[in-house]
Amino acid sequence: MRRMMKAGFLFLGILFVLTACGGGGGGSTTTTTVALTSSKDSAASTGTDAILLTATVSPTVTSGTVTFKINSGPGSFSAISQVSTTTATITNGVATAQLTSDTAGTTEIYATYGTTNSTTKTVRFTAQTVSLTASSPAAMNSDPITLTATVSPAVADGSLVTFSVVSGGAIASIGGATSQNVPTSNSQATAVLTPSGASTGTVVVRATYGTVNSSDVSVQFASITSPVMVLTASKSYLVTAADPILVVASFYPSLSSGTLINMNAAGGAGVIKVEGGTYGTSATPGVIASGALAGKAYVYLKSSDSTTTGNATVTASYGIYPTTSAIVSFLPEIGTSTKSVSLTASALTKIAGRNVTDIRFNIVNDAVSNSACYYKSITPVALLGTLIPNYQQSDANSTVVSFADLSGTGVALGSTAPVKLLDIEYGYNPVMASLSIVPVSMTVAGGASVTLTAADFLIQ
Asked: Which range among 14-28, 154-168, 261-275, 346-360 shows the weakest confidence by mean pLDDT?
């Protein structure tokens, strides 16, 4: 009897253990996963700007290693030599590695624990660039010029940019010397080019971050007896563009409003005209009294026949001011691309159901000097109703768009995002440029202003 009771207890104990363990044949298994993340999606291809990769193993393990591997593209796990694979020790389920590259491009990496691979992670290495701009192309030899350097991709605040006077050091200085180190803020640094007050002429300046130099920028300093006239125009133009571009003359010292300037276009590719005039090879614009171009004179320049390519050289002359010129390359259209511009849900939240009476923004493209991207047509959507559209692309990179309802009643844009505003067709050479939105203003019924950001617009 006791043996039977012991056997019964033994059977129950075994049954309890089997039940607690999920039975003899129906137990579940845990799947191991590896999640791969990065500290950022892009970095500069300087060989020192590192992307931190983190592999997280689940369920958490306390020992072992993870192997990181480059599947394709540039990059290295070593700052000393090209290493496409590295192994890292796991601590509390996590292993890390640093990836750098001295070559620009897109890189795919993955991480492996045991026989388990993570999904592929894509990062991008971008060539470090430094752009340099001057607040004015010229000034009197008593007036300073502000220089602004922008480093891209973004760098940490406090990174040093060196501004240098390449030539013309006797005419102007930076901080009383030929060079000055300036810490960045939001990837920008500024310096002041101060004239000596005794000399006139051209000063060439440059900005440097690390080993990367900006393009040299030339500015001129003038005096009453050594005046300067500067002619500014886009470096390239598309023969099929919808709008002409502006060629603007600036004067140092300034000229009285209404003063007539002689301008000519040579080369056969382009023709010019004054506001309200007729296109031809010559024009005599007057100096503007007020507005954005106050103190300047300008002409419109467009293709002579929408087909002829080549250069157009525009010259300007007046009195003792030295004759100056600007060369614009007229490029053929090799392709077209149509994009739509819409307002996002965040914009509708700011509008809060009110009627919109005015929208103004710039569509900016990143075409560089040896390329062109100009709009050919814009089609506003029907829902804009009484909002009257107006468009203008007067330079190589910015299309100004405005919608205005002069009645003040405005238009309800609804509550469902995205709200499409327009379709815009671009012609381009050699490739379609990237587009972005720079908001200017928005007004709703009653006159209240709505502040929009680039995130409130969608381009697709």
From this structure: 14-28
Secondary structure class of 55 (helix, strand, coil): strand
Those residues with Cβ within 8 angstroms of residue 457's Cβ, 6 or more apart along the chain or in another chain: 341, 342, 343, 344, 347, 361, 437, 439
Class in CATH terms, 335-459: mainly beta
CA 406 vs CA 196, 388, 409, 420: distances in Å: 52, 8, 8, 21
For 403-445, give the secondary structure using H, E and C: EECCCCCCECCCCCCCEEEEEEEEEEECCCCCEEEEEEEEEEC
Tell me the chain's radius of gyration from C-alpha atoms.
32
Tell me which amino acid residue 102 is.
D
For the cut 70, the answer to whether the pLDDT of residue 2 exceeds it is no
Residue 9 has pLDDT above 50, yes or no: no
Q: How many CB atoms lie within 10 A of CB 11?
A: 10
CATH topology for the 129-222 domain? Immunoglobulin-like (2.60.40)
Backbone angles phi, psi at 378, to 5 degrees: -130, 130
Distance CA 408, CA 393 (A): 27
Give the separation between CA 328 and CA 373, rounded to whole angstroms: 14
Yes or no: domain 33-126 corresponds to CATH 2.60.40.10: yes
Instruction: Using DSSP bridges, classify how beta strands 42-44 and 121-126 pair: parallel, antiparallel or unpaired.
Output: parallel
Give Cα 215 distance to the centre of its chain.
17
434 touches 366 (CB < 8 A):
yes
In CATH, what class is 229-331? mainly beta
Q: What are the extents of the domains in the chain?
A: 33-126, 129-222, 229-331, 335-459
One-letter identity of residue 312: A
DSSP code string of 260-313: B-EEEEESSSEEEE-TT---BSEE-PBPP-SSTTTT-EEEEEEESSSS--EEEE
Tens-place pLDDT, residues 281-338: 999 999 999 999 999 999 999 999 999 999 999 999 999 999 999 999 999 999 999 9
Q: Please give the DSSP secondary-structure letter assigned to residue 100.
A: B
Whether 225 and 208 have beta carbons less than 8 Å apart is answered as: no
- CA-closest candidate to residue 249, choices 313, 210, 293: 293
Distances in whole angstroms, Cα of residue 381 to Cα of each of 362, 385, 400 = 18, 8, 17
Alpha-carbon distance of 164 to 183, in angstroms, equals 14
Q: Is 417 helix (H, G, I), strand (E, B) or coil?
A: coil
Q: Read off the DSSP letter of residue 185.
A: B
Integer Cα distance of 403 and 94 in angstroms: 53
In DSSP terms, which residues pair with 100 in a beta bridge?
76
| Cα torsion 172, 178, 183, 186: sign | positive
Whether pLDDT at 199 is above 80: yes
